[in-house]
């Protein structure tokens, strides 16, 4: 039987009337359940997002607390390091010396550099019988005394030491007296060299039961007595260069000059109260001793036979003062003139704080690399100067490369200079 259009529409109408409400109810229920499910999913998603936000905020809060604690700890550490950390020596108040005003008659230039082949930082230079002797630091570690011809040829190692050789000189018999600085103190040694090898022995290792804190220079008199300078009473554990900066900042004025008599095997005090006894020079014609006072920027002159003097006191004459830099190495030429080497220029900031110990205490607590920014030698500033025997300024050697003079030795018409800081080389020029 075939259904017509009317019959088909009638069947659909009857089916709609019979099944429509049920289908509608089912669809409506399904949609309602779907909406509920979506709402539940959205609610759970919102809860999850809220929980994630809460957890994230909690983590961020913890990080903020940790960061704040670290910042406080860093601030406290910085306060301790710069303000509260114990320092030795403690800065002392002093009166800053006057500013240099004297002008040299001659300016010298034309430094000829000599190769040191694996060695650097010459700290002392002497010339004997056509040989140039110098104490240096080895790039492999330790220090040594070398010798070379005046033109730089025939470089030979004379002797070596595990510590830092800070100064040396020859006695009338040709033996080498040298000062050595170690991390626990220093000593005065004697060395013999025959052209083939060297032998050394320790001579002075302590005074009054205490180790030598910081021997910095040596000069031998015509009678063989050995004069040596002790930079200060503080043990220099980090080398002479650091000890010099420490004394400039602290200005303890505890430097001393002693004399050792090889015949009597005795040590006697010559001079005390020096704010950094950094250099010595002996004048045989006058039996006199020049002493460089690092912190006071001056040179003292005393009788070599005098004992237990005080810097600036009775029988201690001011030879040259208000120097343009901090004097270290000293040397006397054939005419009796005194040559002075400057490791650093005068520091206006430092001497402006002469009466204030707080700021210098902070500077003493600074790391070594930051301390070095307080001192230096500008190009064109004096690296060395010549003074007549009467104390008159005669000549000046400007710094050509921003380095100071850690060592010098005038001989004949030549001046040998050992550079420091940015120019750790050996060179010579005519004067």
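Q: What amino acid sequence fits the structure above?
A:
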């Amino acid at each position: 039987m075939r259904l017509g259009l009317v019959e088909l529409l009638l069947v659909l109408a009857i089916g709609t009337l019979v099944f429509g409400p049920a289908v509608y109810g089912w669809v409506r229920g399904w949609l309602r359940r779907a909406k509920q499910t979506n709402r539940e999913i959205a609610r759970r998603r919102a809860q999850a997002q809220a929980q994630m936000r809460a957890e994230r905020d909690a983590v961020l809060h913890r990080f903020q607390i940790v960061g704040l604690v670290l910042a406080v700890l860093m601030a406290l550490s910085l306060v301790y390091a710069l303000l509260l950390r114990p320092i030795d020596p403690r800065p002392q108040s002093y009166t800053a010396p006057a500013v240099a005003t004297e002008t040299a008659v001659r300016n010298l230039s034309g430094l000829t550099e000599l190769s040191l082949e694996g060695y650097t930082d010459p700290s002392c230079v002497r010339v004997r019988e056509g040989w140039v002797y110098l104490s240096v630091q080895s790039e492999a570690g330790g220090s040594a005394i070398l010798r070379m011809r005046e033109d730089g040829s025939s470089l030979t190692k004379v002797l070596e030491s595990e510590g830092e050789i800070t100064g040396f000189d020859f006695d009338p018999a040709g033996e080498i007296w040298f000062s050595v600085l170690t991390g626990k103190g220093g000593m005065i040694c004697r060395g013999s060299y025959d052209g083939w090898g060297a032998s050394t022995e320790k001579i002075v290792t302590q005074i009054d039961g205490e180790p030598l804190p910081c021997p910095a220079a040596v000069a031998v008199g015509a009678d063989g007595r050995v004069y040596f300078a002790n930079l200060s009473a503080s043990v220099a554990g980090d080398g002479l260069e650091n000890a010099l900066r420490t004394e400039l900042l602290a200005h303890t004025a505890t430097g001393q000059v002693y004399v050792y008599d090889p015949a009597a095997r005795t040590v006697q005090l010559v001079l005390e109260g020096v704010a950094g006894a950094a250099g010595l020079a002996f004048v045989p014609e006058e039996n006199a001793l020049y002493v460089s006072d690092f912190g006071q920027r001056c040179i003292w002159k005393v009788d070599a036979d005098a004992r237990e003097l005080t810097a600036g006191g009775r029988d201690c004459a001011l030879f040259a003062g208000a120097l343009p830099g901090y004097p270290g190495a000293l040397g006397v030429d054939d005419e009796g003139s005194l040559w002075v080497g400057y490791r650093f220029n005068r520091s206006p900031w430092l001497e402006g704080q002469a009466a204030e110990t707080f700021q210098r205490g902070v500077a003493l607590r600074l790391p070594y690399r930051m301390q070095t920014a307080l001192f230096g030698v500008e190009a064109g500033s004096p690296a060395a100067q010549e003074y007549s025997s009467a104390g008159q300024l005669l000549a000046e050697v400007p710094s050509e490369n921003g380095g100071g003079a850690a060592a010098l030795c005038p001989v004949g018409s030549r001046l040998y200079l050992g550079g420091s800081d940015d120019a750790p080389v050996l060179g010579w020029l005519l004067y």
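Q: And what stands out in the fold?
A: The CA atoms of residues 292 and 299 lie 5 Å apart.
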